[in-house]
Amino acid sequence: MADSTIIYTHTDEAPALATYSFLPVIEAYASTAGVAVESRDISLAGRIIAAFPEYLQQEQRIDDALAELGRLAGTPEANIIKLPNVSASIPQLKAAVAELQQQGYALPDYPDDPKTDQERDVRVRYDKIKGSAVNPVLREGNSDRRAPASVKNYAKAHPHRMGAWTPESKTNVATMGADDFATTEKSAVIAADGSLRIELTGDDGSTTVLRESVPVLAGEVVDASVMRVAALREFLTAQVARAKAEGVLFSVHLKATMMKVSDPIIFGHVVRAFFPETFAAYGAVLAAAGLTPNDGLGGILKGLESLPDGEAIKASFEAELAAGPELAMVDSDRGITNLHVPSDVIVDASMPAMIRTSGHMWGPDGQEADTLAVIPDSSYAGVYQVVIDDCRAHGAFDPATMGSVPNVGLMAQAAEEYGSHDKTFEIPVTGTVRVVDGTGRAVLEQVVSAGDVFRMCQTKDIPIRDWVKLAVTRARATGSPAVFWLDEARAHDANLIAKVTQYLPEHDTEGLQIEIMDPQSATAFSLERIRRGEDTVSVTGNVLRDYLTDLFPILELGTSAKMLSVVPLISGGGLFETGAGGSAPKHVQQLVKENYLRWDSLGEFFALAASFEHLAASTGNARAQILADTLDRATGTFLNEDRSPSRRLGGIDNRGSHFYLAMYWAQELAAQTADAALAAAFEGLAKTLTEQQDAIVTELIAVQGSPVDIGGYYQPDPAKAAAVMRPSATFNQAIASLA
Ligand SMILES: NC(=O)C1=CN([C@@H]2O[C@H](COP(=O)(O)OP(=O)(O)OC[C@H]3O[C@@H](n4cnc5c(N)ncnc54)[C@H](OP(=O)(O)O)[C@@H]3O)[C@@H](O)[C@H]2O)C=CC1
Ligand SMILES: O=C(O)CCC(=O)C(=O)O
Ligand SMILES: [Mg+2]
């Protein structure tokens, strides 16, 4: 890889489709500055293929691009544009494997219950691919996510639709508040480099080593907490009854993708709690058939078709569904409930979408209704309750006037809960878990019962120090108050508060307002300011980073797709994420059905400009800086002229939006005077795109309205997808002429 290289990631679903259209434009423009844009496949399908070379024919094999980029992220040369990717739930992983098998890849099936060494090996490889397996590898820096001024101003001038709130709303959050991760947490700061062992001593006298070695560094914060299953089940049963009694929808909000070990287990308990009689009667039959509630009701219902008792079990599910509270629906037309697939109800995106829609979700009748939003662990659930109470008291927020809450997130080196997968266990026997250091001393200890979920987290010192620095930098750059969302009553947060207090004096904070507040108080503080039109920087841990960078953008801008999302890598390199949202699976359905892609690439535009700017600064490439500056101006025009996908058939979609961006960018490049040769290089293209504007838009819109074949969902056929995503011959020729 040359010095002047930008890596553009090939991912999944809507952003991957958008890439077929936009990447050729980027490559052509970048080449004029001598910048190479290389693509790396980190899609779910690509990662599966890369993991099983010996099962595949030579020409089917591909390298492990994720591992390569993970190494790159640790070097100063890194300049990576990262699009959202699927963090696969088990049903998605199995679907992707099945699709690839159909395409001729002799991949092994996902072993639900591995028995042989070979099956265990296959399972380990698949488990590495499942869930959030990409972001933690690449995010070797902390997170800086904000709405660029141009986007915020656009949202104020063109406020999105916001559902009204009334004081009568019965929507609420239900959370445990005892015997959960938040309230059982213990935390310690490591004194010296070394390694820890996690072991379980059973009351039956057994000792099991859960993890032999967890390497730790001096100054690192380690935590251990437990979700107590007895209390969880009691809580869930009570919430099912509560939703029924209050006449509201029942919904659960978890992060079964990112918290890929703990949250599917918790999801499974929710499914059991909703269908207690069915699981009492048929739980053993379902388990024997490999049908686990952890993967959702959808998989179970499908699996019933081939069971001898299938009809009776189905009837039992239906009876309990009818007797219980109404379930919130993911897709009421297709009968997909909130309990069908764990990856369909991801807390970060689903809670703000509910708050934006008057506190409503959709019921089985397809109508909006008030909801009991169940978020079992109480670590961060209270944040949403404060927002809901605020809307009930003061009405919906007004996007035309509301302030902004950007985020500085502690994320580097798999910080906090998001790095806990390999240290999370469903406890097999009642006893005590000890986290023991090299001298045999128990650093952390938890009494556990069979079925409890034990979780250990790590947060390294260097990322914490970097995070404090980034917070001060953003506070200085914005002049806004910066609030550390830390709760001194939580063991982990108390240790972080000590470190924040230690590291803040390393910086010039003269004249800055820097506060430390527990998450609920921080929410109330920020909301009060928001309603006055004032901005407040949120400085948070990794989970709140995730939650808040969907919550506030979705309320302020209608979507988190339009965020600038930068990860200044600790190595000095740059990782540029494209927005804060995900891969928008619904958009793919629409493209296949009617050849319309409503994906908004604004996040890609911002990331690209930041990437060119970083490249210019790190390599001294003056033309890269011109590309950055002109792209920035072009994006401004793009916003002013309202060239995002129109969301209606017959208007421009993602492809049309790329055309306009390319046109405005070429015009800016042709008009700039800093580099006459570069201006000359773009003169012809700017003229062609401007003159051919109507013809190109007509060609792009003409294809809409009928189904298309892209040759695969997880791994589309590249030729078919490119043909679908580049339907304007005039535009394609114009771009090709630049090279
Ligand atoms: N950085 C990453 O890699 C991330 C990955 N994910 C992954 O993405 C997948 C989907 O997650 P989900 O929770 O559904 O969240 P998404 O953010 O993907 O989708 C929720 C909704 O947000 C809107 N949306 C998101 N991005 C855009 C965009 N660029 N343009 C237009 N609308 C957009 C769409 O709304 P509408 O229907 O109104 O158009 C969409 O239906 C999961 O596999 C998840 O793990 C999630 C977050 C971040
Ligand atoms: O990695 C993932 O699974 C999702 C990440 C995410 O939602 C975010 O960073 O906002
Ligand atoms: Mg998120």
Automatic annotation (TrEMBL):
Query: What keyword terms does UniProt attach to this protein?
Result: Glyoxylate bypass, Magnesium, Metal-binding, NADP, Oxidoreductase, Tricarboxylic acid cycle
- Site residues (Critical for catalysis), renumbered to this chain: 255, 418
- Locate the coiled-coil region(s) and give their ranges: none
Quote the EC number: 1.1.1.42
Q: Does the entry feature the keyword Iron-sulfur, yes or no?
A: no
Query: What InterPro entries does the record point to?
Result: Isocitrate_DH_NADP_mono
One GO BP on record is: tricarboxylic acid cycle
Where along this sequence does the record place binding of substrate? 132-139
Ligand binding (NADP(+)): 82-87, 135, 582-583, 587, 598-600, 647
Q: Does the entry feature the keyword Repeat, yes or no?
A: no
One GO term in the molecular function aspect is: isocitrate dehydrogenase (NADP+) activity
Residue positions binding Mg(2+): 348, 546, 550
Q: What class of enzyme is it?
A: oxidoreductase
Query: What catalytic activity is recorded?
Result: D-threo-isocitrate + NADP(+) = 2-oxoglutarate + CO2 + NADPH
Amino-acid positions noted as binding D-threo-isocitrate in the UniProt annotation, renumbered to this chain: 145, 545
The note describing how and how many cofactors are bound reads: Binds 1 Mg(2+) or Mn(2+) ion per subunit.
**One Pfam match, by short name?**
IDH
**Annotated family:** Belongs to the monomeric-type IDH family.
**NCBIfam families per record:** monomer_idh
Q: Mind telling me which PANTHER family this protein's record contains? A: ISOCITRATE DEHYDROGENASE (NADP(+)), ISOCITRATE DEHYDROGENASE [NADP]
* UniProt name for this protein: Isocitrate dehydrogenase [NADP]
Species the sequence originates in: Actinacidiphila bryophytorum
The gene behind this protein is icd
